[in-house]
Write a structure and sequence with these properties.
Elements lengths: L1 E2 L10 E8 L13 H5 L7 H13 L6 E8 L7 H16 L5 E6 L6 H9 L4 E7 L3 H6 L6 H13 L3 E8 L6 H14 L3 E6 L2 E2 L3 H7 L8 H17 L3 E5 L9 E3 L6 H18 L6 E6 L4 H5 L4 H10 L3 E6 L7 E6 L4
Parallel strand pairs: 2-3, 3-4, 4-5, 5-6, 6-7, 7-9, 11-12
Antiparallel strand pairs: 1-13, 8-10, 11-13
Length: about 350
C-alpha cells in the first residue's frame, strides 16, 4: 500500500476556533498585506466575543476531538499587554475548565522575548506561530517585513526552549523570491523543526503596496500552476521531515479582493492532488500490467483523481495504461491508496 502523509486530514481529530485581530500589533504595513481583506474582519474582537466563540465551538465538539482557540490576523504579542491579557483570560479559563485543549496565536519573529513568553505561559498558551514568510533577508527587506531571518531563528529557538509548540508561516512568490530561495527557506524551516507550517502563495491584494508595484509593472506574480508546483515541492520536504502542513492558501480571501496572482478557492486541494500524482508515479514504477485497480478511501477520491480526473488521465498517458478502475473502500486509510493488477473473472 502506498501511504501519503496527508496531515490536513488530521487523524488526531483536531479543531481550531479562529479569532481574528486584524492588524493589531503590526508596526507597519508589509508590502503584501491588507489584514481587513485577508481576515474579512473590520472591528476589534472583545473578551466577551472570545467567550461566545468558545461556547459555540465547544457545542460542536465531538467525542475524542481536541479543541483549541487560535488568535490570528495581527501580531498578537505586539498588542498592548492589557489587551493581550484580556483576550487570553477567557481562553485560559476555558483551558483550566477542560473546555479547550490548547491556545495558539500568531505573531512576528521580532515580537518574542523572555518576558513575552512568560506572559504566554502564564495564560496557558500552547503554540506560537511565527510569520517568518522567508529566510532570505533580501526578500524580507523587499517585502518590508522589518525583521531578519536571524530573528526568526532566535525566536523559534526560544519558543521551543520554553516548551511551547512552534508553527512557521511561509510565503512563496514575494518580490525578489525565486524557487531556489523558496526551497532554501523550506530547508531552514526544516532545521528549526517546527511542529507545523502554513504555506501561502503570494497574492496581489487590492489596496496594498504590492498592488501598486504590480500595476506599475514592477512585480510579476506566480500563476496558479507555478504556485501549485512550488507548494508541491515544499509539501514533500515537510512531509519527509514529519512536519505537519496545516494550511496551503489563504482561508478567507474573496476573489474580488485579489488583483492578481495564484488565487484558487481550492488551492490546497490542487497541491495535494499534485503531491498524490507524484506518489502514483512512484507506485507505478516497475509495474508491467496495463490494466490496474486503484483502491482508495471514499473521502480521498477527489484528491487522488485530480481536477476532472486529471491525475488518472495523466497516469494513463505516462504509463500507457489501458484501464484504471477506481475502487472506493473504507478499508483503505484516508490519505492512502493501493494499486493492484486488474483481474477479470
Amino acid at each position: 500500500m502506498r501511504s501519503l502523509r496527508w496531515v490536513r486530514q488530521v487523524a488526531k481529530k483536531h479543531k481550531t476556533i479562529p479569532v481574528f485581530v486584524p492588524h493589531l500589533g503590526c508596526p507597519q504595513d508589509c508590502l503584501f498585506c491588507n489584514q481587513k481583506k485577508i481576515t474579512g474582519t473590520q472591528s476589534m474582537v472583545t473578551p466577551e466575543r472570545v467567550r461566545e466563540l468558545i461556547r459555540i465551538g465547544a457545542s460542536y465538539k465531538k467525542p475524542g476531538e481536541k479543541l483549541e482557540i487560535g488568535f490570528f490576523g495581527g501580531s498578537f504579542t505586539g498588542i498592548a499587554e492589557e489587551i493581550q491579557e484580556a483576550l487570553l483570560a477567557p481562553a485560559c479559563e476555558a483551558r483550566q475548565e477542560g473546555i479547550l485543549d490548547g491556545i495558539r496565536l500568531s505573531t512576528r519573529p521580532d515580537y518574542i522575548d523572555e518576558r513575552v513568553l512568560d506572559r504566554l505561559l502564564a495564560y496557558r498558551v500552547t503554540t506560537v506561530e511565527l510569520g517568518a514568510q522567508s529566510m532570505d533577508d533580501e526578500v524580507l527587506a523587499l517585502a518590508k517585513r522589518g525583521h531578519t531571518a536571524a530573528q526568526t531563528e532566535e525566536s523559534a529557538r526560544k519558543i521551543k526552549e520554553r516548551g511551547l509548540g512552534l508553527g512557521l508561516q511561509m510565503m512563496t512568490g514575494l518580490p525578489g523570491d525565486t524557487i531556489e530561495k523558496t526551497l532554501f527557506t523550506a530547508r531552514c524551516f526544516e532545521a528549526l523543526a517546527p511542529d507545523c507550517v502554513r504555506l501561502y502563495p503570494t497574492l496581489v491584494i487590492r489596496d496594498t503596496a504590492l498592488a501598486e508595484l504590480y500595476q506599475s509593472g514592477g512585480y510579476t506574480p506566480l500563476d496558479v500552476e507555478e504556485a501549485v508546483d512550488r507548494c508541491r515541492q515544499l509539501y514533500h520536504i515537510f512531509a519527509a521531515a514529519h512536519i505537519d502542513v496545516i494550511r496551503m492558501g489563504l482561508l478567507n480571501m474573496k476573489k474580488e479582493d485579489v488583483l492578481a496572482g495564484p488565487y484558487h478557492p481550492s488551492f490546497g486541494e490542487l497541491v495535494l492532488s499534485a503531491v498524490c500524482y507524484d506518489h502514483l508515479k512512484e507506485a507505478m514504477k516497475g509495474r508491467a500490467e496495463k490494466e490496474i485497480v486503484v483502491r482508495v478511501h471514499p473521502a480521498y477520491t477527489s484528491v487522488l483523481c485530480g481536477h476532472k480526473r486529471s491525475n488518472l488521465l495523466q497516469l494513463e498517458e505516462d504509463f500507457g495504461l489501458k484501464t484504471i478502475k477506481l475502487l472506493q473502500t473504507d478499508s483503505i486509510p484516508h490519505g492512502s491508496f493501493e494499486i493492484l493488477p486488474l483481474t477479470k473473472s
